[in-house]
Amino acid sequence: MFAPLKERNYRLWAAADLVSVAGTWMQVLGLNWLVLSATGSAGEMGLTVMLQALPVLLLGSWGGALADRLPARTMLVACQALRALLAVALIVQGGTTVVYAIALASGVISAFEGPVLGRFGSALVPPSALGSALALGSVLSSAGRIGGMALGGVLIGITGPTTLFVINAVSYGAVILALCLMRTGDMRDLPQASAAEGGVRAGFRYILGQPVVLLVLAISFVLGSLGRNYQVTMAAMVAGPLHGGSGSYGLLSTVFAVGAVTGGLVLAGTGRSTLRVLLATGFMISVLQFVSGLAPDVLGFAALLLPIAAGAVVFDTVAATRIQLDTREDMRGRVLATAGIVSSLSGMVGAPALGWLSDAAGPRTALLVAGAVTTVAVVAGGVVLARIKGRTLSLRPLHLRDLVLARPSAEQPA
After folding, report:
1. CATH code at 1-186
2. Other beta carbons within 10 Å of 54
3. pLDDT by residue (tens digit) across 199-234?
4. Residues 104, 109, 114, 120: what is their CA dihedral angle, to the nearest 10 degrees?
5. Is the pTM of this model over 0.85?
6. pLDDT tens-place string over residues 303-342
7. Which in 20, 227, 308, 319 has the greatest CB count within 10 A?
């Protein structure tokens, strides 16, 4: 299960990432509170989120092209230093205009940093351990988010948001220190793209010539837009047909977090990141999402939410693994940038769509419709994949023991 942790560089990165993720979520909490306190408007909070996502959509492709050309560790040190400066700027900020500018600047950094992170992570472990490394990273991200939000929730009531910004600024120092302590001789050498090959346009041409990658991105977009925005449907179900309160919402949030950690641990223990696992998991969570629209009460909804969260982490991690393993290493930054753009678009499209559907037809109908659409999308994707690979689509169910007992192979066959 913990094979990636045998690598010293990965251990340093994992520890630093846990600290950094916790600090990031503390800052998110403090930033939301700061904007809400200053404006009294939830819409202004939404504007802050949009300003952070917009640069990824506009600049992500160029960020991916640079990631394929420049040294990853050097770029990461620079990005972390800039993020630390932004956190310091929040400490001394003078109003919401400054906050919006910082949010926009953070999004610009993310556009260039995201592809570099994925490319750098694949240099820390051998290809056979990449699936387990990504799954462990997902577990650490979930743990950091839970810890950061919990500690931030306590501190913000005692000290206000400024302390959260200070802690986040310090957390970036931990990442920079870890990067400086890594042994470059233990890292895998990833080929770098030449400046003459065309950059962004070459990346798009390459991706358009990879039907399996395009299919994975398409399924990820559908499931990401209609099957991942549970912050919308979960709140709507609690406030509506489930007749719950803030305590019920807190319970469901905790269940979702536990499921996410569980899914990451299961996948980290097997490293089994095949296309068959991707499709089977996508089908499972889509069907469960449909059934969750029929849940009679909060506990019934929570019982369905647990495997949905676990499956979502497995699906997302397997998708990220296949995107990296099934593409050329000198194109990896541009492919990862495209995946980041798809992820941002799915959130921007799905959340408003599910919110509108919940308001217009009720949250139960929203879950039923979304679950039906995502189920059809996964089945259609399976049919297309079978044709691409010249195989017959197998409807034999994927049992849990297939994940638990499977041994990861170096090639990770589909």
Report:
1. 1.20.1250.20
2. 17
3. 788 888 888 889 999 999 999 999 988 887 676 777
4. -170
5. no
6. 999 999 889 888 988 888 888 878 887 888 888 888 888 8
7. 227
First to last CA, the chain: 21
Where helices occur in 182-245 by DSSP H, the ranges are: 200-208, 211-226, 230-239
Contacts of 158 (CB under 8 A, 6+ apart): none
Measure Cα distances from 95 to 30, 38, 88, 334 in Å. Answer: 14, 8, 14, 36
Average pLDDT score over residue span 37-50: 64
Q: Kindly list the domain boundaries of the chain, sorted by start residue.
A: 1-186, 199-409
pLDDT at 371: 94
Q: Which residue has the tokens 């995946």?
A: 339
- Check if CATH label 1.20.1250.20 holds for domain 199-409: yes
DSSP 8-state assignment for residue 195: G
Q: How many residues does the chain have?
A: 414
User: Phi and psi at residue 408, in whole multiples of 5°?
Assistant: -65, 140
- Find out whether 144 and 21 touch, Cβ atoms under 8 Å: yes
Give the Cα separation of 95 and 29 in Å (integer).
17
